Predict the 3D structure of the following.
Amino acid sequence: MKKTADTASVPPPTLLTSRILAWYHDHGRQRLPWRTQITPYRVWIAEIMLQQTQVATATGYFERFLVAFPALEHLAAAPLDQVLHRWSGLGYYARARNLHRTARLLVEQHQGCFPTTVEQLAALPGIGRSTAGAILSIALGVRAPILDGNVKRLLSRLHGVEGWSGERSVEQRLWQLAEAHTPATAFSDYTQAVMDLGALVCTRARPHCDACPVAQQCVARQQGRTAELPTPRPRRSVPVRELTWLLLRNASQSLLLEQRPATGVWGGLWAFPESVIDVDIDHEVQARWGFSVMAVTPLPHFEHLFTHLRLRVRPQLIDVALADDALLHQGVRWCNIQQPCRVGLAAPVTRLLRQLQP
């Protein structure tokens, strides 16, 4: 393994920063909706969406989310189900739950204003140090560095930083570099510039080094190591979980949904009831809901991959007759196939509902 050059033979941060800013003014994505009208609320929503979502996908969701919740007070006052409904399809639903919790905390404990220190902002649910830095530097006029995935990749290559960024010592080094590069002025533009430079030029695969304003100073490029840096996360095995989904359909062509627990897979969302692979469907349906099974139609199996889990699902479409004394407990509802419920739905549930529409 070649020895890292780190900061050796690299110009001072001020020079690199000026080149990055010049590139941004010519090539940056300055027309993104959260950049054309900058407020702390809009920047916060965008930053949370962009944590696990590409810009092209996040843009449409952002605009629809802002129509539904145009201000912090609207988001804080909304039921969680409405927030999850607007988030449906974006995945990583803890982000939406944290948005809702933080909106209420800001209204209840901060008079509807965003704190102006990294420490206070980062203490709120779902924000963290880098997101706090983005909100502060872009929207609140406070100099604060950021270190999102794009910036980690950019700095790792530029300075030849070895090691996975999840390791404490490596992360600390990257934060030092992020701090050193953040200018005393124009830090709002700089924050957006490094985001864009990482996303558009210093990409994960096949970076566009010929278009990079700091390519001549990049250690990874000098050493021919852009494919090696940043050091990837150590591989880990993903556990597999198999289950059966029970798609109970009544005579009105409505399907039964259950609300998931607040934490865990699809926390707070609505999904089909689940059971074990070798379930006795007649007995299960009678015991849990008091319904009589009229017909069972197996649907194609599918897999859904999370970062920490591979889910293998066997859906079973089950036509049921409702007994007179059948009762639904709290957290259970019927959803008409023709007019799906306006609540937060797990993405595979949405797909299956569409497939079952006549």
Q: What stands out?
A: The CA atoms of residues 12 and 224 lie 22 Å apart.
